[in-house]
Amino acid sequence: MSRFLLRRTFSAVLTVLGGTVVAFVVMRLLPGDPARLVAGEFASAEAVAEQHRALGLDEPLWSQYLIYMADFFRGDWGFSYSLGEPVFEQFVRSVPATVELAAAAVTLAFAGGVIGALISSYSRGGPLDAAVRASSYIGLGTAPFWLGLLLLIVFFERLQWLPGPEGRLSSSTAAPPPVTGLHTVDALLAGEWATLGDAAVHLILPAVTLGFVIYAFLVRMLRASMLELVREPYILVARSKGRGRWGVIVRDVLPNALLPAITVGGLVLAELLTSTVLAETVFGWPGVGKLVTDAILQQDFAVVQAFIMISACLTVACNIVVDLLYGIADPRVRVRSS
């Protein structure tokens, strides 16, 4: 297992380096001059040249990359000219909102995926099974931004049941005392039940938008795994002993079907990273996704580049954790790796 971990870590380091090199080069090839953007549209050539030296853009590309990587791992992610503050501080301020939204989306997706797979496998071939499969097809074939707009039109504009794209709280609701940065958790800790309700209601539409695609992944995978497991000999033996079909599915089939769900962790994170940008933009959610979208519109390359670096590191780290968890949960993986 230790050799397996070393191999995966070494591979992860190479992957991160390769991804960051590509991202760095691509950002430098994009149209627009960061020095010109910082100095201003009507700045003189001397002022632009001074900004080039200040930003290190007069250095060779390989030297710029090494300097950026060294600064990045020291916590210096550059300076955002559009907001006038360090990029690191912007991410620290935006991360809690994204974590709260992602946690709500994953919770809804996992609960819906498990319940949907149970219903689908129990009523295989029936109308409920068809409904679950249809929902998974819709989830995989629907763009998150389109789903978000559709939900806003139906539940905000037409029915007026849920709040619109106004962020994490209503304008008339004060934020709870900050402890974790998660409004729902902070309101719960402070005992501010009205704030908790307002924060939870504002989470519904963006969490459903973000979690629907993840639900579709999970329910399809769990359903296929459960339908395969019900034909295993130990399941047939359990049924032959007189145990009910529902009890066998819940107690014997579902726990074993959840094991392959570990491998979806990397896909889930990749989906969250991409869909969060779209969902937060649609709903005005002040998280990392909206921060990056605004930075792209402002051509604030320091913010975009930091997001790409973080995304690469998180994806690779998540894949390593998935491999380790799968090795712990399934002894056959440990035997093969040894």
UniProtKB/TrEMBL annotation:
Single annotated GO MF: dipeptide transmembrane transporter activity
Residues in ABC transmembrane type-1 domain copies: 95-326
Alphabetical list of Gene3D superfamilies matching this protein: MetI-like (1.10.3720.10)
Organism superkingdom: Bacteria
Transmembrane is among the record's keywords: yes
GO CC annotations on file: plasma membrane
Membrane topology (UniProt): Multi-pass membrane protein
Compartments where located: Cell membrane
Keyword hit for Transmembrane: yes
Pfam family, one: BPD_transp_1
Annotated keywords: Cell membrane, Membrane, Transmembrane, Transmembrane helix, Transport
Principal subcellular localization: membrane
Transmembrane segments: 12-30, 101-122, 134-156, 199-218, 258-283, 303-326
Similarity annotation: Belongs to the binding-protein-dependent transport system permease family.
Name of the protein: ABC transporter permease
